[in-house]
Amino acid sequence: MGIKPGDICVIINSANGEKGFSVGKKVKVLDTRLMSKADEQYCNNMKEQGIDLPKSPYDIPHSKLGQIWPVAALDGSEFVSEYGGKGSSIDVPECWLAKLDDTDTKIEKSKELEYN
């Protein structure tokens, strides 16, 4: 598929199947390397102590679903998990994402400008 951070996609499947709350939502794939200052400081302190940190969970593909990506909704709305939890971003397997082509992306960006 070739999905990477910054890509615009649509969610096509979910833990609840094709009728899940997030299916059909247009999302932006987030960078898996972003860390808060606190995370960065913690990692640096651990390295100074000679402690090897595990890889980021995003670096290791899921055993059945493959590459996992953090995503955020383009319209800024919240996601609802299969357990009813809400959040501004979620992790989605790459096989549940359909990358939108440049035409779809340009249309989406122009819509964002209209509403802002």
Could you tell me the radius of gyration in angstroms? Answer: 16 Å
Q: What kind of oligomer do you see? A: single chain
Query: Main beta sheet, described?
Result: 5 strands, antiparallel
Give the topology string: H per helix, E per strand.
EEHEEEEEH
Estimated structural class: alpha+beta
In percent, how much strand structure appears in the residues? 15-25%
Beta strand count: 7
Specify the helix fraction band. 10-25%
CA-to-CA gap between the ends? 31 Å
**Model regions low in confidence, pLDDT < 50 over at least 5 residues:** 110-116
In round numbers, the mean pLDDT is: 81
Gross morphology: elongated
Spatial ordering of strands, largest sheet? 6-3-2-1-7
- Number of helical stretches of at least 4 residues: 2
Outline the structure in words.
This protein is an alpha+beta fold and 116 residues long. The chain has a domain at 8-33 and 61-115. The protein has helices at 37-48, 102-115, and strands at 8-11, 26-29, 68-73, 79-80, 86-87, 89-93, 97-99. It contains 2 helices and 7 strands.
